[in-house]
Write a structure and sequence with these properties.
- With 358 residues, the protein is of the alpha/beta class.
- It contains 13 helices and eight strands.
- The protein has two domains: 24-285, TIM Barrel; 308-355, Helicase, Ruva Protein, domain 3 (Orthogonal Bundle).
- The chain has an eight-stranded parallel β-barrel, surrounded by seven helices.
- Helix 3 (110-118) links the parallel strand 3 and strand 4.
- Helix 5 (162-174) crosses helix 6, helix 8 packs antiparallel against helix 9 and helix 11 runs parallel beside helix 13.
- The longest helix has 15 residues, at 271-285.
- The protein binds the ligand CC[C@H](O)CC(=O)C(=O)O and manganese (II) ion.
- Manganese (II) ion (MN) binds at residues 32, 185, 214, 216, 245-246.
Amino acid sequence: MSTTDSPVVDSTDHVPPLTGRRIQICDTTLRDGSHSVRHQFSADDVATVSAGLNRAGVPMVEVTHGDGLGGSSFAYGFARCPDDELIRTARAQLTDSQLAALLLPGVGTIEHLRRAADQGLDVIRVATHCTEADIAAQHLTEGRELGLVTVGFLMMSHMLPPDRLAAQARVMADAGAQVVYVVDSAGALLPHQVSTRVAALRTALPPEVSVGMHAHNNLGSGVPNALAAAMAGADHLDGSCHGLGAGAGNAATEVLVAALDRCGAETGIATQALIDVAADDVARICAGNLPALDRTALLLGYCGIYSSFLLHARRAAQQYQVAEADIIRALGRHRPVGGQEDLIIDVAIALAQRRQPS
Ligand SMILES: CC[C@H](O)CC(=O)C(=O)O
Ligand SMILES: [Mn+2]
């Protein structure tokens, strides 16, 4: 299948910048998008969306709790459906697409990884904070031994300069990652910063290791950031239908695929079929929960805060009767990383106490 279903040909343009480039899309509606629905996707929702993505020719589909394998917990929110069932349900629909799962070492374990592999997983994406690549080693090694495609996922990539991020990517590649992603968890990067990071990884990694980009939209540049990544040498890009995902959400897969088509890239995806999955299935299933670039989501990107903190901050704001925006601004001064969700409560309590007369 090719992406040549573009209805308009711009004959005045020069050669499109990605002409002939093959770009591998991973759709994370059913994983990162799970944050948007507080991890309440039903097995029916997963069956419908994964069938649609498979039909549209999306090559890779990520499915699990929003925080990855083992994420369903008091700390991260209980999922409606256990990972096992989500994975089995998606597997039954994905006749052509590869099935991927995310794993954060410590949230998910080697045992979770083995179970997922038994249920037909094709790809494991091992995520760490961008300074902690070494803790992905045993999961990447095990992934290779299980015959999976292995991906390293460097979260909060805005917190390191390009050369240091590239050194961490090298650690993941040496541990067996076949693709290493720049992950803009806070949606804090702008296109020029994505370009320098992707270019640094491309230079530091052996040619057989690919570079990927996972963009969030908190500064409104999810799709432009993904395009900048492709132009700087990334050949794996993430998106989610309608941009469903933590914070202001991700680069919207259907928008990204249409834009890549205009740039001359080959994704193998039927653009119109994908637009229909987003507009019909995902919009219906997630009505009322589609991500918005509202004040709090914008502040996440502006202050460089992990997108998955949004719902935790909303809950703390309600519980302690303080403004969400004040929590995010105060968190910005602490430079917290994923896993430090407790700090949100500390900050909310401190703000509430400051308001009380002593
Ligand atoms: C909690 C995992 C997180 O949602 C992973 C991710 O997609 C990111 O860091 O952007
Ligand atoms: Mn994300």
